[in-house]
Design a protein that fits this description.
CATH topology: Immunoglobulin-like
Organism: Neotoma lepida (Desert woodrat)
Helix content: under 10%
Structural class: mainly beta
GO biological process, one term: post-Golgi vesicle-mediated transport
GO cellular component, one term: membrane
Number of domains: 1
Protein name: PKD domain-containing protein
Strand content: 35-45%
Length: 64
């Protein structure tokens, strides 16, 4: 992923909820309610998150 000069504050968050639903957010504000998801079925789900900005990237995996 590449960012142009001036995109220091631009952050892309990609979330895969592990149930076939994946979403992307750009510049999600800390003032907003955050990321919410309701699962339609009971089970164990592998949730992955990838965050990218001009300073680098990071990822996390969580089992729910």
């Amino acid at each position: 992923m590449s960012f142009e000069l001036g995109d220091v504050q631009r952050t892309l968050i990609q979330v895969d909820f592990g149930d076939g639903i994946a979403v992307s957010y750009v510049n999600l504000s800390s003032m907003e309610d955050g990321i919410k998801h309701v699962y339609q079925n009971v089970g164990i789900f592998r949730v992955t998150v990838q965050v990218d900005n001009s300073l680098g990237s990071d990822s996390a995996v969580l089992y729910l």
